[in-house]
Amino acid sequence: MLERLYLCGPMRHIVDYNFPLFDKVTKQLRDAGYIVTNPAEMDRACGFTLEILKNMTKKELEEYTKEVFPRDIAIICKSDAIAYLPGAFQSDGASAEMACAKAVGIRCQSAEYWLNLVTSK
Predict the structure, then answer these.
(1) For an engineered disulfide with 56, which of 12, 46, 60, 110 has Cβ 3.0 to 4.6 Å away?
(2) Mean pLDDT of all residues belonging to the chain
């Protein structure tokens, strides 16, 4: 059975909102057979490209975060597990996502863990 993973990690205070790492790890996880939800892909699908995000004021970014956070939490609650990226525990948003997941019994492991799980079989 394929695991549905939500990819979680720092974004707001990282160069290019960490989109390149989110995209790289998403590809690796999908290639390993996981079904992955990538918040960077969801942002782009809503029209929020890196260019737009980089040009937002702090206030606009805070408002955008308030809009997408409930979306992300709803998706987490439908996932089998979270795969987190380096720096997730230093990120307020990623820490909150993992806390919500844990509160409803959803496993949280590093993306590396999920990749190693497949390669060790």
Answers:
(1) 60
(2) 93
Q: Which residues pair with 83 in a beta bridge?
A: 7, 109
DSSP class of 17: G
pTM of the prediction? Answer: 0.92
What's the distance, CA 115 to chain centroid?
Answer: 16
Question: Which pLDDT tens digit goes with each residue over 94-111?
Answer: 999 999 999 999 999 999
CB count, 10 Å around CB of 24?
A: 12
pLDDT of residue 44: 93
Phi, psi of 83, rounded to the nearest 5 degrees? -110, 115
Give the span between the Cα atoms of 39 and 68, in whole angstroms.
9
- Name the architecture of domain 4-119: 3-Layer(aba) Sandwich (3.40)
The label of the residue with tokens 């439908």 reads 78
- Cα four-point dihedral sign 82, 48, 74, 13: positive
What is the distance between the alpha carbons of residues 114 and 102, in angstroms, rounded to a whole number? 17
Which SS3 state, helix, strand or coil, does residue 70 take?
helix
Q: Which residues is 4 bridged to in the sheet?
A: 35
